[in-house]
Specification:
Layout lengths: L3 E10 L4 E4 L5 H15 L8 H10 L17 H8 L31 H5 L1 H7 L1 E7 H6 L5 E8 L1 H10 L17 H10 L11 E8 H5 L1 H13 L7 E8 L1
Antiparallel strand pairs: 1-2, 1-6, 3-6, 4-5
Helix pairs in contact: 1-2
Length: 247
């Protein structure tokens, strides 16, 4: 079973000194726009979905603002590890994916001064979800996004060649229930002896590679942080994410 994040944004009203829930653009809009952009730029090859994406975007025109997920609503276990030590270094079915990440904080629980809307749902939030926490923009900006982690995964012959060329694979697996796992030496010999089969073979070998946290965080680092910074006036401690997870 997968794990998902439920993320809300609050900002402190300086006049009342109370936290208020902030609305933002429906995340489905950016999802379909990104999908469409990737097809048109050649990053994706499913050109048959262009019309579908355009139709979805048209239907979402004038879509009301939302409170949940507008800053981030993806499923990135690397990011979850950074935010609250959730799924840290572990993927589907608990498979090890690397050394993990130094979390910004262990789960803190829900803050005592929640916005009114979230406070009204506190009991159900605490009963049905886990790893509740919150982080201010100040904490997010102070985090060392440049530090690196080590990933590990199993790759096919073609991906092994990608790994040797660029230092990291494009695709990999956790190796769950895999039986055709060989050493690097055996993989090298196989590729040498079967050059025409590198794109067809399913044998695997394990590789490790390093990646900066900011690249592992991907969309959150490149887009979500900017959305949060736009809400900051002169007090980054007065804008925060409140979030929890389900599994």
């Amino acid at each position: 079973m997968g794990t998902d994040i439920h993320l809300f944004v609050e900002k402190k009203n300086k006049e009342t000194n109370r936290w208020e829930l902030i609305e933002g653009e429906n995340p489905r809009i950016s999802f379909y726009q990104r999908w469409l952009d990737d097809i048109q730029s050649g990053k994706r090859t499913d050109v048959h979905n262009i019309d579908y994406c355009q139709e979805e975007l048209k239907e979402l025109e004038g879509s009301p603002l939302v409170t949940e997920g507008w800053v981030y609503d993806g499923r990135n276990y690397d990011l979850f590890g950074m935010l609250a030590d959730v799924r840290n270094g572990r993927g589907f079915a608990g498979i090890k994916t690397g050394e993990g990440f130094k979390p910004i904080s262990l789960p803190k629980g829900l803050p005592d001064d929640l916005s009114e809307e979230l406070e009204n749902d506190r009991d159900s939030i605490e009963d049905f979800y886990h790893s509740h926490s919150y982080l201010t923009v100040e904490e997010l900006l102070a985090y060392d996004w440049e530090q690196k982690t080590t990933h590990c995964g199993y790759v096919t012959p073609s991906e092994y060649l990608n790994f040797k060329k660029q230092g990291y694979p494009t695709r990999w697996t956790g190796g769950l229930n895999e039986t055709s796992i060989v050493s690097h030496e055996e993989m090298e010999n196989y590729i040498k002896e079967n050059p025409s089969l590198v794109d067809q073979s399913s044998i695997l070998t394990q590789v490790t590679w390093q990646e900066p946290y900011k690249e592992a965080a991907s969309i959150f680092y490149n887009e979500s942080l900017n959305k949060l910074k736009e809400l900051v006036e002169d007090s980054p401690q007065d804008v925060r994410m409140v979030f929890w997870f389900d599994s």
